[in-house]
């Protein structure tokens, strides 16, 4: 059971920031599907929750030229079902549809997931793999500068993710090996091709959270087919290791996942 | 225990006979129609027995009208929260409760010392199985084993992570949990041990000072000299060591209890879902030193048991005690985290098995060395005991020798878990047979066929002294193979290969035993309206007793099923009853309900004879009415009952002879050697359940049983970090489960070879799905990996384990596509 806390439903960005500032130890909450379980286990004890999802700037999904812009408070289910997303970046819609279960997908939000930067979460791989821009209440941050290690981001205290702008690629694919228990990513690879440029982002595996696999990007830029990855390997030294997968197995899965993502563009491929 | 002792006991030192047809059956083994009072069963008049009658409990359960423990609340109730040990093994130097006592809303903070001061004793778990047919497990010196007293709260030390050492009772759950954090325990950490083999090693930490070396049971069975002789002359010996992983039940409804004390009558009512309210009442009354008449236990709907709820939990006693001290109702509901740490767990057996064969592949003898990890104290020896009687599986093995040990460790206690003890030994013998076949270059089906116990040898006494009652083992295997389309394997192999997958098939035969508490009682009342009420002491947690039991009584009394109501789970109504475990319920309840029905019909016949004016023995009984061929007059059971004198009969029956459900299961898997994903693509089984009262319910039980076995084989595991002693799977984030999307559709068939031990010929259903599944899945995976050089893999066979096995294997580098 959680410790006591106060609750505030913010209507505007300023309202949210003020409510956050005025408490000793406030936390923003969107879908609550990462934060509330932590609070129930008494591992987090904010004295005030500031609820963000009613703030208009955080809503909406729209195509804006060569970009797809998604509000931070859009749910996984909303993204998965959006014709705009399905048309622009089908792998992103499929990724959203593969998160957790229907309950999780109807509460959890893109902003919450990205701000949380769980090393096994799905969205960070798409944000980094597509080279998205994170818009916040204060500024714009490049994906390459945003993720800063497990559960750590470039966000400052009190800064709110408002929306994320994804460049629309020529093609993108996502391949995921799921943890047999939690079904979070055990290793998953998001591969996006923009003309001659390729970006590969891997989640679930790295001990610093989501990361880009540069050797694979170079090899695929030269030749965009699974065979281009032959002989390439991720260094197990930088991998997480636990009862579900050793560092060596994770490193192996990074390669397998990247190859399958290349082979199956526009789709989600479940390795297990 | 001694009440059941008799000459047929399998004592460790009794001279065992070689296995073979059992010519001298123990007294009372076979069902005696005359002595039972049932006489000839009206089999040809069965209307609903054998029919897939829809489960009457389901509408209630799926529309949220179930009454689970936490659904009950009493005005003014308080909430209990536990202070639990963060250490696997630590001395309690002192407990400072002062700060917690003063926290808002707190009414009491209680420790083990308070319980001792109030005269509370340990829970009388009675873990040594005691029917005439259970093997006799004893301490190394031959005495009754020391089991480690299970006080509600320990006073000396905590022996596993999560052990409750103090309780806070407060006005709200939040207040109780907040205050529990203020209780300060002065701990002295002690060395700890989690693995049962490590625990027996010299110098291992001592869980109980009373048991140096931690092995508190050490018994041997079988004819060692004959086994040694057979091994000496064997053409081949196959040998293997296995660990059957530890699992937990993950019941959908966490365990909970609500105690309500009535100061006026001095009586306590405990709402607590369990595997049988009668045992809970008896053992809790003894723990608290209450007159059993002062305790009523209610167990209504139970959201999953699988064995985890059969034994008394400390929290049940604690809320009872607190409610009597505080004269207020007190509730405890476990969180999922508490359930993972402190629900009674299952399995955890180390086994070393050896099989001696002659040059033709005939089994000559077997040796087994089984070590059961019971955890921090012993609440049940059922798994070790059940398995002991079945080490030879479905096969004729003339001689066998078993050493059975049980060991304390710094882990949560283990208990009987769905199909207690049987999947473990089935896994061992079936894997051993596959190993022998491969080593000797024999076909694994042919090797099994050569050694299966023949129907003509039934009843059959095994080398462990179990008497298999009936069964057609080879026919089971043939039917299962036909259902599976065994002949199509090569084609499916090729098809899988074309898709880059490796296909594997695992087949396992099984025999399991259903023994269980020998006593059961039924009370049957026919009211003037014709409604039939049956009070019975079993406790369903999804098995559909309200339906299948009603089918039995309906056919016995020749009345529609809808008229029969089954009353369970209230100790004010149910005075005696063994609960539900070990697949005992249909057989024990069916038998005693048939007896009570026959008694009731006898009484009714006398009354009817009076009414109709004919001698009782001349009356016919059809469609629920008595008649005479010389008269058009009839009288129904309902008409014979009056408000003052309803028709009533009660019967208590004691039945010791176990039955041996049996069958064959086959699993097919496809493995992606790159990702190490394992997918079950086909699963077929034949289960001989004896007479099948309701095939739909039995099929449902088989499906659930298979899923549970598959779950253990593929995902479920309670590992412990050796260094810290901490459980690593404390939530569903780390404890993998079977789900709708990762278990296949099953092809299940039922075989009905009637058991000669009870009136209906019932064996048991529901555990048979689980029993062979650990073996079938593992054997299928090994079959698929054999071409890649993998010979062994341990459960659960996760992708990680598979990857490790592939990389350790000699031909490991062959595949990478
Ligand atoms: C059973 C279960 C299964 C799951 N499975 C998966 C899975 O397979 N894959 C996966 O990726 N995830 C999974 N999740 C996590 C889920 O996707 C969460 O919803 C998501 O990670 C967090 O989003 P949220 O909106 O719920 O965030 P919240 O829980 O509300 O917040 C998470 C963190 O982000 C902060 N935050 C929230 N919104 C913002 C914002 N706009 N700006 C700045 N900070 C913010 C909060 O303060 C908090 O620290 C699962 C969760 C559950 C409960």
From TrEMBL, chain A:
It comes from Oceanicola granulosus (strain ATCC BAA-861 / DSM 15982 / KCTC 12143 / HTCC2516). Residues 1-171 form the FAD-binding PCMH-type domain. This is Carbon monoxide dehydrogenase medium subunit. Gene3D superfamilies: 3.30.465.10, Uridine Diphospho-n-acetylenolpyruvylglucosamine Reductase, domain 2. Pfam families: FAD_binding_5. InterPro entries: CO_DH_flav_C, CO_DH_flav_C_dom_sf, Diverse_Substr_Oxidored, FAD-bd_PCMH, FAD-bd_PCMH-like_sf, FAD-bd_PCMH_sub1, FAD-bd_PCMH_sub2, Mopterin_DH_FAD-bd. Keywords: FAD, Flavoprotein, Oxidoreductase. The keyword Oxidoreductase applies. GO terms for molecular function: FAD binding; oxidoreductase activity. PANTHER family: XANTHINE DEHYDROGENASE SUBUNIT C-RELATED.
From TrEMBL, chain B:
Keywords: Molybdenum, Oxidoreductase. Residues 1-21 are annotated as: Disordered. Residues 1-13 have a biased composition (Basic and acidic residues). It comes from the Bacteria. Transmembrane segments: none annotated. One of its GO terms (molecular function) is oxidoreductase activity. It comes from Oceanicola granulosus (strain ATCC BAA-861 / DSM 15982 / KCTC 12143 / HTCC2516). Signal peptide: none annotated. InterPro entries: Ald_Oxase/Xan_DH_a/b, Ald_Oxase/Xan_DH_a/b_sf, Ald_Oxase/xanthine_DH-like, AldOxase/xan_DH_MoCoBD1, AldOxase/xan_DH_MoCoBD2, AldOxase/xan_DH_Mopterin-bd_sf. Pfam families: Ald_Xan_dh_C, MoCoBD_1, MoCoBD_2. Gene3D superfamilies: Aldehyde oxidase/xanthine dehydrogenase, a/b hammerhead (3.90.1170.50), Aldehyde oxidase/xanthine dehydrogenase, molybdopterin binding domain (3.30.365.10). Residues 63-191 form the Aldehyde oxidase/xanthine dehydrogenase a/b hammerhead domain. This is Possible carbon-monoxide dehydrogenase large subunit.
